[in-house]
Design goal:
about 280 residues, single chain, globular, Protocatechuate 4,5-dioxygenase, Chain B, alpha/beta, two-stranded antiparallel sheet
C-alpha cells in the first residue's frame, strides 16, 4: 500500500527564493538560513520519496476574493510556477500525480471534507520555496508533487483542529491507494510574523519554539490554539501554522525527530524547520 512515512515542516518566506535564484544564498545574511537545510536535503535524497504532498497557501495568484476555497487539492498533471509580479521563479514546473490526487479527493469527500478539486492552477512561492529548500537547485523536481492549498489569507481560515483532522483523513486516503508509494507530506508557512500595521515585523521566538515542541510531543495541544491566540502570539500571518497541523495529523501519534532548526531573522520573519518520521518507521530501520 501507499504510506506517509514522514513530514517536513518549513517556512516559505518569498525572499528565500529570491536569494537562492539570484545567487545570494551564501551571503553573510542568508548563509545561516540555507545551512539549516543541508541535512534536510541529505535526508530526503536518501529517503527518495515517490510523492510529496505539499500543504501551502496561495498568495492571490491562483485564488483571490472572487474564489476562496478553504481546501483546494491540485489534481492536474502539472502546475506552472506563477508570476507573482516580477516574473515566474526560474524553477522546474511541478509535475503532479493525478491518480493519487483524485483518489485522495474521493476519499476526503466520502469522509465529509468538502475539498475543492483544481485541474488548472499555477503555484507560487508558498509551494516552490519549500521544494527548493528541500531539494536544492535542480533541472526537475525528483518526484511528483500534489499541491494542497489552504486558505489562511481571507477570514475565516480553518481551525487547527480541522486541519489536524484533515491530515488524518489524508493519511487514510493514501493508505487505501493500491500502489506501493513512499509519501512525504510538507507542512509550510509561518512561523510568527506580521506584515502590516503597528506590529509589522513581529517575531515571537518563545511561541514559535513552544509550537515546535508541541508538534514533537503533544500535537493535540497545538490543535487547541484558537485563531485569536495565533493572532495575538504569532501575528496576523502566524495563522499559517495551522497548515503544519495538516502534516502533523498525517503522522503517528508517536514520532521521531530527525532535524529541527530555528533562525531569526529571514526577511521580516523567523524561519522554522522540522522533520518528523513515524516512530514505527524509524524503529523498522
Amino acid at each position: 500500500m501507499a504510506e506517509i512515512v514522514a513530514a517536513a515542516f518549513t517556512s516559505h518566506v518569498p525572499a528565500i527564493g529570491v536569494a537562492l535564484d539570484t545567487g545570494h544564498d551564501q551571503d553573510d545574511y542568508w548563509r545561516p538560513v540555507f545551512a539549516g537545510y543541508e541535512s534536510a536535503k541529505q535526508w530526503i535524497a536518501a529517503l527518495k520519496p515517490d510523492v510529496v504532498i505539499c500543504v501551502y497557501n496561495d498568495h492571490a495568484t491562483a485564488f483571490d476574493l472572487r474564489l476562496i476555497p478553504t481546501f483546494a487539492l491540485g489534481c492536474a498533471p502539472e502546475f506552472r510556477p506563477a508570476d507573482e509580479g516580477w516574473g515566474a521563479r526560474p524553477v522546474p514546473k511541478v509535475v503532479g500525480h493525478p491518480e493519487l490526487a483524485w483518489h485522495i479527493a474521493q476519499s476526503l469527500v466520502l469522509d465529509e471534507f468538502d475539498i475543492t478539486i483544481v485541474n488548472d492552477m499555477e503555484v507560487d512561492h508558498g509551494l516552490t520555496v519549500p521544494l527548493s529548500l528541500m531539494f536544492g537547485k535542480t533541472e526537475e523536481w525528483p518526484c511528483p508533487v500534489i499541491p494542497l492549498a489552504v486558505n489562511v489569507v481571507q477570514y475565516p481560515p480553518p481551525t487547527g483542529n480541522r486541519c489536524f483532522n484533515l491530515g488524518k483523513a489524508i493519511r487514510k486516503a493514501v493508505e487505501s491507494f493500491p500502489a506501493d508509494l513512499k509519501v512525504v507530506i510538507f507542512g509550510t508557512g509561518g512561523m510568527s510574523h506580521q506584515l502590516q500595521a503597528q506590529r509589522a515585523g513581529l517575531i515571537n521566538a518563545e511561541f514559535d519554539n513552544r509550537f515546535l515542541d508541541m508538534l514533537e510531543t503533544d500535537p493535540v495541544a497545538a490543535t487547541r490554539i484558537t485563531h485569536t491566540e495565533f493572532l495575538r502570539e504569532s501575528g496576523s500571518e502566524g495563522i499559517e501554522l495551522v497548515m503544519w497541523l495538516v502534516a502533523r495529523g498525517a503522522l503517528d501519534d508517536e514520532v521521531e525527530t530527525v532535524h529541527r532548526f530555528y533562525h531569526v531573522p529571514a526577511s521580516n520573519t523567523a524561519v522554522g524547520h522540522l522533520i518528523l518520521e513515524n516512530a514505527s518507521a524509524a524503529a523498522a530501520e
